[in-house]
Amino acid sequence: MSTKQALPTWDLTNVYPSLDSAEFKQDMEKLAALMQKFEQYLKENHIDPDKPLQENDPQKLAIVITGFIDRANTIQELAISLNAYINSFIATDSYNQQAAKALSELQQLIVKLQQLGSVIFQGWLAKLADQIDEIIPLNETLEAHQFTLKETIEQSQYMMSTAEEELAGELSLSGTRAWEKLQNDITSQLKWEVENEDGEMVKLPMTAVINFRNHEDEEVRRRGYEAEMEAWKTVEVPLAAALNGMKGAQGVIYRRQGREDAVHQSLDQSRIDRETLEAMLAAMKNAQPMVRKYFKAKAKRLGKEALPWYDLFAPLGKIERTFTYPEAQKFVLENFAKFSDELAGFAQTAFDKNWIDVGPRDGKGAGAFCMGIPSVKESRVLLNFEENLDWVFTLAHELGHGFHNYCLYQADRTRLQSGTPMTLAETASIMCETIVTNATIEQAADKEEELAILETALIGDSQLLVDIYSRYLFESEIFKRREKSDLSPDEINEIMEWAQKETYGDGLDPDYLQKYMWTWKPHYYIPELSFYNYPYTFGMLFGTGLYKIYQERGSDFVQDYKDLLSSTGMGKAADLAARFDIDLRSPAFWEGSIDVVAQRVERYVNL
Fold it and tell me: Is the distance from CB of 452 to CB of 321 less than 8 angstroms?
């Protein structure tokens, strides 16, 4: 049996026995029933944004709002858990029609929930803006949810009319959500014939072909790149339709809601201001020459003047230690324990209870992610593990997300208190990845091993500082041009190559760029999220800054860090960062975190 065949798959039987189980069907019916009662509650209490307020007594309003919060928390916990369970099948087997049907049914209920909460309640609550400071102190539940209530009022200024918001939500099922599904189905089910490392022609899912990028043999990497370019070419037309549909619909909604531009909503979702984003982007842009120095040094080691795309992820140096999945588990546990026994204990539980779906296979989505399941207060992690150091880092990264969920569950946060923005969602994952990365560097047996470890670390760093910037430029340009007309596959490819040239510069061989990055990256196809790119860099640099504080404070830092993780749904990023005397609007903070990468580059060049 091969290693891949033996890799664990995740177990969700403690959530529901199966999609056919009575328990699953009962909870789907329960959610529908709760939704009906929820809608009736709003009607009985005259929660209607299109009618005058029926109640002005602060005491009575406090009771009404508390009733909404309690019901919303209960419904969201059930809906999120059902969604995670169904998506556990779709993410690992996009051929599963039963799961696809269940997701379609659930999405209709979720859209209804969004209409009741984000449209009807939000529009009604906005009328209480002048009274909310008087109402909140009247009830413990309201005090505990005051950030959510005030944010809801703040965001109400970007609502269309109730009818328009409801129509947009209903149309999303056959619009943006359909485009998202199309992209996932195409990319997860596409297979292509490619020559493997043994010289055999094999037909592989694209998730496996993508992993050729990390192969130690240059010819294998090149063949994988060529196979990618051929394969994505065959599906560029439907995927271009999906991207046009997604960005076109999002752009219309943003304009009708009165947003300043396409990035505006992502700033509010990220709970940062434009000054913070611009400070970070400026630091990223200033760091590009430093990162290009790394690219050129790597190219030189490979005997080239500039890197072709297929060499970007090439491993260099040599690590005598192997990293089978069990060895990766052991290494992560050992180093998590140095940070805290609680973190290591969480990871051990994830391994012991099979919370991780490890290996790539046909029908399984690319990449890696972690999802929380609040009904059982657990997480599940998806990987496409290969036996290299990069996937050890990824394992640590995704377990960091799981630990973040664990801290929220331990603090008994409600669903409305747990809505963590992308910017802060990467805090724990970057911290855990940094812990493991630094441990590998410190434990390097010789220069060849240190080179290999630095290589893996810098591949990740360069992606976050340079490739993420290219994705930000790409998405900005797509939104800008999509306002005028549909974009052809050739136009989209041209924009992607332009964005890569702007950021990678002379660090990449212009004859071997990756113009099809937009086809398989699911981040561009998420209905509720645009610019699912810069928050990764925010998380990396914020997490790096926190790690520097941890190095100064040691074990005294851990409890404050856990408190921060448990509060990420209850404050703006700048306010939470201020707990550690971090000024997110200051370029100096971002540059200080980037200095850590610069030191790695200097060491890499000098080895």
Answer: no
Q: Tens digit of pLDDT for each residue in 182-213?
A: 999 999 899 999 998 888 999 999 988 998 99
DSSP assignment of 216-263:
S-HHHHHHHHHHHHHHHHHTHHHHHHHHHHHHHHHHHHHHHTT-SSHH
Closest alpha carbon to 123 in 257, 320, 272, 321: 257
Contact 423, 539 (CB under 8 A): yes
Q: Report yes or no: 454 and 430 within 8 Å, Cβ to Cβ.
A: no
Question: What is the number of helices (H) and of strands (E) in the chain?
Answer: 28, 5
Residue 80 token pair: 């999120």
Cα pseudo-dihedral 429, 149, 579, 562, rounded to 10: -40
| Rounded Cα gap, residues 133 and 150, in angstroms | 9
| The residue to which tokens 């190559």 are assigned | 497
How far apart are alpha carbons 243 and 240 in whole angstroms?
A: 5
Where are the strands (E) in 136-239, listed by range? Answer: 191-195, 201-205
Distances (CA, A) of 433 to 149, 438, 513, 543: 34, 9, 28, 10
Contact between residue 211 and residue 222 where contact means Cβ atoms under 8 Å apart: no
Percent of the chain with pLDDT over 90: 85
Mean pLDDT score, 338-362:
96
Identity at 295, one-letter amino acid code: F
pTM of this structure = 0.85
* pLDDT score, position 199: 87
Please state the separation of Cα 444 from the chain's center in Å: 31
- Contact between 193 and 212 under an 8 Å Cβ cutoff? The reply is no
- Give the pLDDT score at 2: 40
Two tokens at 27?
A: 């909870």
Cα gap 98→85, rounded to integer Å: 13
For residue 3, pLDDT over 50 is answered with no
User: Residue 483: what pLDDT?
Assistant: 95
Closest CA to 468 of 338, 209, 277: 277
Nearest C-alpha neighbor of 558 from the set 410, 412, 393, 431: 431
Residue (of 589, 475, 448) closest to 532 by Cα position: 475
Q: How far apart are CA 26 and CA 258, in angstroms?
A: 41
Q: What is the mean pLDDT of the chain?
A: 94
Please list, in sequence order, all residues whose beta carbon lies within 8 angstroms of the beta carbon of residue 38, skipping any fewer than 6 positions away: 71, 72, 75, 113, 116
Residue 265: closest CA among 82, 477, 527: 527
For residue 61, the tally of other CB atoms under 10 A from its CB is 22
Residue 5: pLDDT above 80? no
Instruction: Look at residues 10, 212, 6, 15 and name the one whose alpha carbon lies nearest to residue 92.
Output: 10
Distance of CA 111 to the CA centre of its chain: 21
